[in-house]
Write a structure and sequence with these properties.
single chain, 209 residues, alpha+beta, Nuclear Transport Factor 2, Chain: A, seven-stranded mixed sheet, 5 helices, 7 strands
C-alpha cells in the first residue's frame, strides 16, 4: 500500500509541477514576430502611425481626463465597433469607446504598443486594415502578456486616419494553456484515485477487525 501511495503521490506532484511550470511559461510567451510587409504608401503609413502614437500615448499616461481628447483623434465614433479580450467585451459607438478606454486606463495595466512593427493593408483609398503587437503588464499581479490589436481604420475629410473596427487579442501560445489544463486534470484524477484507494483500504481493514 505504501508503495502505491508513494507512486500516486509522486505522479500527482509531477503533474502539479508541470502545471505550475507551464502557467509560469505563459508569462514569458513571446508575441507575434512574423508580420508581412505592408502594402500602403509611405505618406499613408506615416499618417496612420501618427494616429497610433496618440493612441499609445493615451495608454502610457492613463489619464482618464484625456479620454475624450484621445477618442477625438483616434476613433471614428460613428462607426466604431470594438471586441475586447473578454468574451463579453463587445462595445459600440462613442459610449463604448469611452467605456473601453476608461476600463483599460483605470484597471487593466501598463500597455506598450509596438508601432514600428505595424502591418497595414490598403483595402480602398480610405479604408486600411491594420495589425500591430504590444505587451501588457497587469496591475493586479504584474504578469506580462503579449497583445495583438487588429482592425480597420478610415480616413476622414481632413486626411486623418481613425479606428473604425478594433479587436484586442492576448497573444498567448495556446499550447501552454492546453498542456497546463491536461496537467491539472491529471493531478486531480490522481489525487481522487489516491483518496479512493486509501478509503477502500481503510474499509477493508476495518472489516477484518
Amino acid at each position: 500500500m505504501k508503495l502505491i501511495v508513494t507512486i500516486v503521490t509522486s505522479l500527482a506532484l509531477l503533474f502539479t509541477g508541470i502545471y505550475i511550470a507551464l502557467m509560469l511559461g505563459i508569462n514569458s510567451t513571446p508575441g507575434a514576430f512574423n508580420y508581412p510587409d505592408s502594402n500602403i504608401s509611405e505618406p499613408n503609413r506615416q499618417a496612420i502611425e501618427k494616429t497610433l502614437k496618440v493612441f499609445q500615448e493615451g495608454y502610457a499616461l492613463r489619464d482618464a481626463s484625456k479620454i475624450g481628447e484621445c477618442i477625438a483623434q483616434t476613433i471614428d465614433t460613428a462607426s466604431i465597433f470594438i471586441l475586447g479580450t473578454n468574451p463579453n467585451e463587445i462595445l459600440k459607438g462613442k459610449d463604448g469607446a469611452q467605456g473601453l478606454l476608461y476600463g483599460d486606463w483605470t484597471y487593466w495595466g501598463s500597455v506598450k504598443y509596438d508601432i514600428d512593427r505595424l502591418y497595414a493593408d490598403q483595402i480602398t483609398d480610405s479604408i486600411v486594415y491594420v495589425v500591430f503587437p504590444g505587451n501588457i503588464t497587469l496591475d493586479l499581479n504584474k504578469m506580462n502578456f503579449p497583445l495583438q490589436v487588429t482592425g480597420t481604420m478610415v480616413q476622414d475629410g481632413n486626411g486623418q486616419w481613425k479606428f473604425s473596427k478594433m479587436q484586442f487579442i492576448y497573444g498567448w501560445n495556446t499550447n501552454y494553456i492546453i498542456f497546463a489544463r491536461t496537467a491539472a486534470y491529471g493531478t486531480l484524477i490522481l489525487l481522487v484515485a489516491l483518496l479512493t484507494f486509501i478509503c477502500i483500504i481503510k474499509c477493508v481493514l476495518s472489516r477484518k477487525k
